[in-house]
Amino acid sequence: MITTLESVTSYDELPRRKFMAIDLYQWQGFWYPLYLLKAVLLAQSNFKARNDDILLASSMKTGTTWLKALMPTIMNYNNTHGDDDDPLIMNHPNELIPSLELQIFSEQNTSDKYNISGARSPRLFRTHMPYAMLPNSFKESTDCKIVYITRDPKDAFVSLWHFLNAKRKQEDGPYPIDKAFEEYCEGVHQFGPFHDHVAEYWEESLKRPRNILFLNYEEMKRDPKGQVKKLASFLGRPFEKDEDVEKIVWRCSLERLKNLEVNKSGLEPWVGIPKSSYFRLGVVGDWKNSLSLEMKQRLDEITNMKLKGFGLELDASKV
């Protein structure tokens, strides 16, 4: 079994499958496009964390864009400067928190923009890496903080299906959802299996609650002010006034983000997907518009089986 970067003589030796016609390679139980696997391994070997680094982690399409807006907005907030401290007016959320595997350690990164050694503290990063693949300097630090966001896997799957369809050629049409669903249920998708990804971070959050904040998208939708206050306190930026919390919630709301000029047109350069695709619906229970009852029951059964005994509930109707 291939377990180290040095033992890879050819990536063709790795198990290989497809998700939505995209080639994925399996490494230590998880699936990656090849270019992201190479970046993950480089990050794991070369990234050196500072004690005050903050990492946003998630599986794909679990509410990450909301957190990419919230975290830098909270960190930059100054209630005496009007909107001058609002980083969202001129920047897509992806530009505010660089990705370890998609940008910083990507083979395509040839600019000095992501020269992280010279970045001022505290540094914000994001990743879709499983916990086990994080650089040791992050996992071993007693002060680095990780914010993890997850959601009902039925909604996560439907959101991912829509998102990746946005990159397909128009003449090819959407990828068959029943086929994508089968692949997803088998755990074969970017950074999947979904449930294994969630379970790793959940277990670590129970061991190290001071360092890892585990958030649920459904809870954030139900009580945005309460969850934003919890996030701000975890980040060391607690709010004194409710009006400040309300302002942050408004600034980072889906409706506002969708209508900011910076997010309306153009492609996200690192992914090749329209910037607007990051702001589709943002609702709980959208899976009902795409999945049959049989599909719902099957994914619920997988969730119950995979997370049994963890004390973690992901079904949106029960959260």
Summary tags:
9 strands; 319 residues; 3-stranded antiparallel beta sheet; 14 helices; alpha/beta
Mean pLDDT score: 91
Shape call: globular
What series of H and E elements makes up the topology?
A: EEEHEHHHEHEHHHEHHHHHEEH
Amino- and carboxy-terminal Cα gap: 39 Å
User: From the helix content, strand content and strand pairing, which structural class follows?
Assistant: alpha/beta
Number of strands: 9
Total helices: the number is: 14
| Unreliable spans | none
Strand order within the widest beta sheet = 5-4-6-7
Fraction in helix: 25-40%
| Strand proportion | 5-15%
Main pleated sheet:
4 strands, parallel
Task: Write down the Rg.
Answer: 19 Å
Strand-helix topology:
Elements: E1 16-19, E2 22-27, E3 30-32, H1 34-46, E4 54-58, H2 64-76, H3 93-96, H4 100-104, E5 124-127, H5 136-139, E6 145-150, H6 153-165, H7 177-185, H8 194-207, E7 212-216, H9 217-222, H10 224-234, H11 242-251, H12 254-259, H13 261-264, E8 267-268, E9 273-274, H14 293-307
Parallel strand pairs: 4-5, 4-6, 6-7
Antiparallel strand pairs: 1-2, 2-3, 8-9
Helix pairs in contact: 10-11
Tell me what you see in this structure:
There is one protein chain. It contains 14 helices and nine strands. The chain is α/β, with parallel strands linked by helices and 319 residues long. The strands form three sheets. The chain has a four-stranded parallel β-sheet with strand order 5-4-6-7, sandwiched between helices. The longest helix has 15 residues, at 293-307.
